[in-house]
Design brief:
Largest sheet: 8 strands, mixed
Helix content: 25-40%
Bound molecules: aspartic acid
Order of helices and strands: EEEHEHEHEEHEEEEEEEEEEHEHEHEHH
Structural class: alpha/beta
Radius of gyration: 21 Å
Strand order of the largest sheet: 4-1-5-7-10-11-14-15
Shape: globular
CATH class of the largest domain: Alpha Beta
Oligomer: single chain
Number of domains: 2
Distance between the termini: 33 Å
CATH superfamily of the largest domain: L-asparaginase, N-terminal domain
Length: 342
């Protein structure tokens, strides 16, 4: 790798930098010096490596859209000075944050690689070292003078995944993330092998623009047999809820009961948006395949195809925040904006 590279590490918190609190014994995040002390290899990269640490550093369960805005602004403010960005982040909500950033950073032409760890960096068997070192390498990698992966990604346990296709699937294994509907963008073995047919490259060059307006009036409703009408009603009637991510069965199927479709119709009639995503980890919504999804089409529900719930929620928040006319909003929800659906 050439020497004249530069990577900015944005440290937001997460297990990678945690230590046990001396009083409670619980894991709490601490400053970046702790990480760099544990990874002396960082000094051997031979290119410029700078760090910005959030104050305070947090467990990612505390993430709110303001944190996404801070990450995006930090990238925007430093965009011209660095070849790539590594975001150190807790694993719990990493898939939400990476999804959000993919929609926020419009015109992105540089790598933004999220990573973290399942075991703190100070623990002998930590996965954090390899994750951090390889994430930095990927963030700095160029071919023919251009970044190899100009996307928002998650690097974890040897795999580089598109951020808005990724879900956290294991609370236990080092292999914590999967991207069930898209193969990895790269795999790290003896060499890092990039899957360049899948990586998205900008077709038109435009300056980076950050969308930072979120509308949090979004709900997720996961269907299950026996769900009470009162529950569905309460969610859809909650003041301020403008959009619903409906987690349906299989290829996007739901009960055909009149009360259920009636609740959806009434919500959509009041201007609400409903996006159909499947509860299955892999595969896609195909509305109309079964009679049990035909009613959703006629009620005005939009197909989320193979989008993850994480990407659906953040995409909806961003699009609703843009105060777009209803038709435009529905059209944008139904089609991929940055590789989040097939
Ligand atoms: N609770 C931690 C977090 O998300 C878990 C982790 O980082 O793995 O911040």
């Amino acid at each position: 790798m050439e020497k004249n590279r530069s990577v900015l590490i944005i440290y937001t918190g997460g297990t990678i930098g945690m230590v046990n609190d001396p009083v409670s014994g619980a894991l709490v995040p601490i400053d970046f010096r702790h990480i760099s002390d544990q990874v002396p290899e960082l000094r051997r990269f031979g290119f410029s490596l700078e760090t910005i640490t959030f104050d305070p550093v947090i467990d990612s369960s505390e993430v709110v859209p303001e944190i996404w805005v801070r990450i995006a602004r930090t990238i925007e403010e430093n965009y011209d000075r660095f070849d790539g960005f590594v975001v150190l982040h807790g694993t719990d909500t990493m898939a939400y944050s990476a999804s959000a950033l993919s929609f926020m950073l419009q015109g992105l032409e540089k790598p933004v690689i999220f990573t973290g760890a399942q075991l703190p960096i100070g623990v002998l068997r930590t996965d954090g070292k390899e994750n951090l070192i390889t994430a930095i390498e990927i963030a700095a990698e160029r071919i023919d003078g251009l970044p190899v992966v100009p996307e928002v990604c998650i690097y974890f346990e040897n795999k580089l995944l598109r951020g808005n296709r990724t879900i956290k699937y294991s609370a236990e294994h080092f292999n914590a993330f999967v991207s069930p509907n898209l193969p990895p963008l790269a795999e790290a073995g003896l060499q890092i092998r990039y899957n360049r047919n899948i990586i998205r490259y900008p077709t038109v060059r435009r300056p980076l623009a950050v969308s930072s307006r979120f509308e949090t009036g979004v709900a997720v409703l996961r269907l299950f047999p026996g769900i009470m009408r009162e529950v569905v009603h309460a969610v859809l009637e909650t003041p301020g809820v403008l959009g619903l991510v409906l987690e349906t069965y299989g290829t996007g199927n739901a009960p055909t009961a009149g009360w259920f479709l009636g609740e959806l119709r009434a919500f959509i009639g009041r201007g609400g948006i409903v996006l159909n995503v499947t509860q299955c980890q892999a595969g896609s919504v195909e509305m109309g395949l079964y009679e049990t999804s035909a009613g959703l089409i006629s009620a005005g529900v939009i197909s989320g195809r193979d989008i993850t719930t994480e990407a659906a929620v953040t995409k909806m928040m961003i699009l609703l925040g843009g105060s777009l006319p209803a038709e435009k909003l529905s059209a944008l929800l139904a089609r991929p904006l940055c590789g989040e659906m097939s």
